[in-house]
Amino acid sequence: MQPEPESEAPDTSHELDAVTLFRSSNHDAEMEAMSIRGILEANGIPSYLVGPSSIPVLSFEVQVGRADLEEARRVLAEAEAGGPAAADEAEAASEESA
């Protein structure tokens, strides 16, 4: 009988804790949160959309891992500075690579 392989110790650091990058309860919060999440995912940053789609008066959030927070902020700042033309270009590029 072979011995069981050693399992890795769980990561107990706080680098994987989810932190809020964006929060809004505006009328277009869900749409904005989904756009932000799309930008992050396109840049390889895992994120989570938090919020009820059936109760529009509550806020929506986009959360990322604590370790990805600074990179996520940088990516969003670049996307915001680039405007809609840059978003269209990035979307076209992602469709070509898919």
Question: What tags apply to this protein structure?
Answer:
98 residues, Alpha-Beta Plaits, alpha+beta, 2 helices, three-stranded antiparallel beta sheet
Description:
With 98 residues, the protein is of the alpha+beta class. It has helices at residues 29-42, 69-97, and strands spanning 18-24, 47-50, 60-65. The longest helix has 29 residues, at 69-97. The chain is globular and about 55 Å long. The chain starts with 17 loop residues before the first strand and ends with a helix.
Topology, pairings included?
Blueprint: E1 18-24, H1 29-42, E2 47-50, E3 60-65, H2 69-97
Antiparallel strand pairs: 1-3, 2-3
Helix pairs in contact: 1-2
Give a concise summary.
The protein has 98 residues and is an alpha+beta fold. 44% of the residues lie in helices and 17% in strands.
| Major beta sheet, strand line-up | 1-3-2
Helix/strand order, N-terminal first:
EHEEH
The CATH topology of the domain at 18-85 turns out to be: Alpha-Beta Plaits
Multimeric status of the protein: single chain
CATH architecture level-2 label of the domain at 18-85: 2-Layer Sandwich
Our estimate of the beta-strand percent is: 15-25%
Largest sheet: 3 strands, antiparallel
Q: Specify the structural class.
A: alpha+beta
Rounded mean pLDDT is 83
Q: Name the helicity range.
A: 40-55%
Shape: globular
Number of strands: 3
Stretches where pLDDT is under 50 for at least 5 consecutive residues are none
Radius of gyration: 17 Å
CATH class of the domain at 18-85: Alpha Beta
**Total number of helices:** 2
Q: Tell me the CATH superfamily of the domain at 18-85.
A: Hypothetical protein rpa1041
Distance between the termini: 45 Å
